[in-house]
Amino acid sequence: KKANGVSVEKPVGSKKLKQQQRSRKEKQPQHNFTHPLLASALKGHSGNITCLDFSSNGKYLATCSDDRTVRIWSTKDFLERDHRCLRANVELDHATLVRFSPDCRAFIVWLANEDTLRVYKMAKREDGGFTFTVAPEDFPKKHRAPVINIAIAETGKFIMTASRDLIVIWNLKGEVLATINTSQMNSAHAVISPCSRFVASCGFTPDVKVWEVCFNKTGNFREVVRAFELKGHTARVHSFAFSSDSRRMATVSKDGTWKFWDISVEYKKQQDPYLLLTGRHVEAASGPCRLALSPDAQVLALASGCSLWLYNTRQGKQEEHFSQAHGEPVADLTFDTTGRFLASCGDRAVRVFHNAPGHRAVVEEMRGLLRKATNESTRRRLQQQLNQAQAALDSLEAPRG
What we know:
Blueprint: E1 2-3, E2 6-7, H1 15-27, E3 38-43, E4 49-54, E5 60-65, E6 69-74, E7 85-89, E8 95-100, E9 106-111, E10 116-124, E11 130-134, E12 147-152, E13 159-163, E14 166-170, E15 176-181, E16 189-192, E17 198-202, E18 207-215, E19 221-231, E20 237-242, E21 248-253, E22 257-262, E23 274-280, E24 289-293, E25 299-304, E26 307-312, E27 318-322, E28 332-335, E29 341-345, E30 349-354, H2 356-372, H3 376-397
Antiparallel strand pairs: 1-2, 3-30, 4-5, 5-6, 6-7, 8-9, 9-10, 10-11, 12-13, 13-14, 14-15, 16-17, 17-18, 18-19, 20-21, 21-22, 22-23, 24-25, 25-26, 26-27, 28-29, 29-30
Helix pairs in contact: 2-3
């Protein structure tokens, strides 16, 4: 069955393909994992999930897999027994990366075999579902090395694709605005900041390089200029992330440490970012490590191998450890827009965790503000926020005794 030229039902493949998929299912039994903070496990993909992304309105989670599908999940079902999802098929290929557009009416994917970017438009149906329409043309091929990430600026002004040696800045029509040679030999990660002002990358070198993407007053692209660097690690940086207000960054390195930074500086006046905290994560010394930062920058999530760790960014204390959360190494992890949940993928299921350290951080912050507050109406408001956060935390702690 097709809608606007794109299959939205189960694809009818060749007998050989079905046999391959069946044998893969038989060889890889679903990994079972339980934990009091596990909110849900989203199951539906028949292949390993390589990437996930929350929509900016917080309503949807997109996942892509080597099973040739992209699935759109409803976040309001996370705490329900059944998890609804809609499926868009990736014809004759599969997606390795997926990202929502800022208006939540489209998503982009990176195609594994074609090595190019494809745009899917989402049109809402009367029954609340979507039909998916592929844009007439894929983006031109510009990368020679494997692509490690893609992103769309929240302003909607540009798209970034990043490979091991090159970052390409595109307009939405698929025209190249600029290319950046990262000079990091073998880049591991690259992103656009939530404020859409910066692109940044890390790689073989012990730093994170940050560039500003500049537009003029009429909204036309002007140039890309070097902004600042995060220096302090003694070995390659595996990964990094921005807070939602783009004022904080976190990094994790092969030197076995993670660092938390204040980047709200006047870099045009040569002011360097401030290092706020250094924490230990010894697992980062032995292999690749992925990182996510909660929207409020209070909680840092790290993934090494198949396991996850949560640290607070106030003292650097480890608060949670989800051992062997996945049957395969974690491929991606991210917090939702509210910071209530952390989602991770690697095998055929998405694990959605309650962000208990986030609630603890709010409780601690509200208590501190309450001690200093002198105005009665302010005290009442803070007490209400404290009560809500404490109630949410108590409900999560109860199952753990």
